[in-house]
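Worked problem 6 (solution included).
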Amino acid sequence: MNSKGEDFIKILQGHYTNEGLNLNKENADVAIKYMDQTTRAIREVVVEMVRLQEYPEYPSRLSCLYAAKSYEDALKWKELFDSYNRKVLQIVKLRVIGNSFDF
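Solution. The predicted structure is:
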């Protein structure tokens, strides 16, 4: 949202004229963030659809546990998820017994 509390749709509706779309930097930043989040959301949906069709036995990335090797790495992941407006519910310390993999 911009400093007036307008989301991207309100900005678009309020700044589109017959001459085109004219945005100041603040509103352009809101538009870019909205498009980035929308693109990421569409990508996640497509990846999930492929997973369901091709690999239904694999867990969904949308509802799985993410692990990191250190607390600092976990905080980096949290920061990334926060930037996508994906809420991190909890950070806990785990002891792993068995196989793990890195990607």
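Discussion: Helices lie at 8-15, 25-54, 71-83.
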